[in-house]
Write a structure and sequence with these properties.
The structure holds two protein chains of two kinds. Chain A is α/β, with parallel strands linked by helices. Chain A has a single domain, classed as NagB/RpiA/CoA transferase-like (Rossmann fold). Chain A contains five helices and twelve strands. Chain B has a domain of about 80 residues. The radius of gyration of chain B is 26 Å and the shape is globular. The termini of chain B are far apart. By secondary structure, chain B is an alpha/beta fold. In chain B, a hairpin with a 4-residue loop joins strand 5 and strand 6. Chain B is built from 22 helices and twelve strands. The chains are: A alpha/beta, B alpha/beta. Chains A and B meet through helix 4, helix 5, strand 9 and strand 10 of A and helix 2, helix 8, helix 10, helix 11 and helix 12 of B. Strand 9 of chain A pairs antiparallel with strand 9 of chain B.
Chain lengths: ~190, ~475
Amino acid sequence: MTVGQQFEQKWQENSGKIIRIRQIAELPGFLEGIVRSYGHHGNMPIVMAGLPKTWSDAISQGSAQAAYLWAEGGDKERFRQYCEGSTLGVTGCAWAAADAGSVSLYSDSEQSLLPSLLPPIHAVILKESQIAETFQSGLQAMYQHAKETHFWPSLIKVIAGPSMTADIEGQLILGVHGPQDVYAVIVEE
Amino acid sequence: MGQLPFDPRPWPIRRNQALQDQTMRHTIGFVTRRFALAKRDVYRKNPAIEASRQAAVGQKRQAIRDMPRLLEQFRAQVEEHGAQTYMAAGAHDAIAIALRIARQAQAKLVIKSKSMVTEEIELNQAFESAGIVVRETDLGEYIIQLAREKPSHILAPAAHRNRHQIDELFHHDASQQGIQPPVSDEIAELTHYARFRLRQEFLRADMGVTGGNFLVAETGTLVLITNEGNADMVTSLPRVLVSIVGVEKIVRDWSSLVQIIQQPAMSGIGRHLSSYTTMVHGPRQSASAEGPDEWHVILLDNGRKALLGTEFEDVLSCIRCGACLNVCPVFREVGGHAYGSVYPGPIGIVETPLLTDLQVLPEIPSTLCTLCHACLEACPMDIELPHHIVALRRLKAKRRLNARRLDWTMRTWARFWQTPQGYRRSVQIARLAQRVSRQPRILHSAPGLFGGWFETRDMPAVAAETFHEWWPKHHHTGASEK
């Protein structure tokens, strides 16, 4: 089993959903489909952060739905309001782990954690080359990088599935505070 | 010496109330068995985890021994990242520091993610008395906050309440808030109500309060683990963040964190990771879209450091996974409230008296353990819980903390059973007593001193002829037949 296949399996075991696309042009149609099936009432259905420019441009231009991208120097109050009112948050990630079925996001000038937190659906887009074999090796690589650059992001978030609770009678419910659906979109290179 | 809140009602009252609460017993039984099975499965399917666990145990023990130095290193690191740190000797000190921060920030609404330490110091009561609204945001904690109760399980705080009772609480809350109540008492609807209700407060809150699962000395990292995502709301949204963490959460370096970070999810709920693992290094960097402007870390001692260098030191390795609760036959029957402490289960009956130098609930190591050793087998940190329970019983006897009547009974019993003759005489006395009380087969009660023992148990009656009495007669005959 390849690292990518192992990630897929574990991510799904964690109640996440998987999409594989061959080229970035397929992305807008797919994201639009999610928003349409979930329904949307506000004026900013999609919020984005931490994506390569080609990807975010593809989404903004290729989608009929309005999409807002967090960028360095942006108005954080306005971005927070958009995130609160949106249906779908789209982010990149710093790395993923195959054995745990997890993705890791860093809060910095380009990447915001809010699209992965406030909207009811989160889609994280990643390349297969970003997937570490184990969560432990991913953590070690992250540490090495931080040591070399003398920089730790103020917030790091590791996501392994949708927001969930079993606090009432032990029954599992998805989407208590964060997203009820998380999609990992793997872009084949 | 630490200060811990406790239920002052005597153990028999707490016990009877627990045993009569069928809702609680059903849910606790279901939840604990499911968690215990999930833990067993994840270890079975991933044998490589065992090496990490063993490494984590060794590293954590060493970190506890080096705690004072590592705490200083941690403080230096996070302060370099722009945070403020504080050492709180006891619960009152931690409360005073947190209140001072809240007042300086002019906080009116505080949102909290789940934290056992803030239960330990009764933060909510202190803030409410000071006129500051505190909102628990973990679903289970939110439910028990509305019901004004304590958690009944470390991981599932509201496991003692069923959907109908929770629906009632939410309806009452909705009418007070003037908002739409849950559409029905379906669990999904109840959760949806909590999402909507708490989201408004997440967005309005001025201050967030978290606990912490791990503190990394080398890198100045605070690690928080949740499944709901509420800790992410608390660390991302309010302008002031206060993290109140027990000093024992310290680990030495990043590689220690790598070994231990998956243990709470693996041993607690049987998953590789919980849905969210959040690492905080400092306040918001200027260009970031989220994170607090101020971050304050309060490191709480409250009786922990007094255990350093004692035979109980390994208790400080606890990662609060709840694995010992899930396998404990006593916990499965009586649930968390019967313990009377914020820390229930095997770890609670050890830690509660230890943190308070046996001032709080010293009776629980004697009353709430059968010494079956299931907790020792389940504990991922290899804490010698049954050994400590026996040691605490010994310590209690030495300090004469047991009721005099109990002491006298145990001493008399011991005197009889020290010799074979004494044992045989006790059997004869018991046989006489059961004849007088007319209980030929099973004893349901006993007079005076021995009555308490029979309140929750029966005992088979002494046989008309015991094996010891039978043997000399027949052994002799058997030998001569050969």
